[in-house]
Predict the structure.
Amino acid sequence: MMTPKNSEPKIVTCPSCGGDSVYAPTNAFRPFCSQRCKNMDLGAWASESFRLPTDAPPDDLVFGDAKLQ
Ligand SMILES: [Zn+2]
C-alpha cells in the first residue's frame, strides 16, 4: 500500500471554475476551490430543479376530445 506524502496535497479540478482545488481537510469547500464556487454549484442545482416542463397538453383539450367519441 502506497501512502502519499503529507507534504504533497492532492490537487483536483474544481467542478465549478475548472481551476486547481486542494483536496485536503484544510479546504472546507472541497472539491471546490472556494466558497464562491461551491455556492455557484448549489445555485445551479437549485435553478435546475425549479425548471419544470411546460409542454404538457391542457386537461380541457383531452376532456373535449373524449366527449366527441
Ligand atoms: Zn473554483
User: Anything to note?
Assistant: The pocket of zinc ion is lined by residues 14, 16-17, 19, 32-34, 37 (CB under 6 Å).
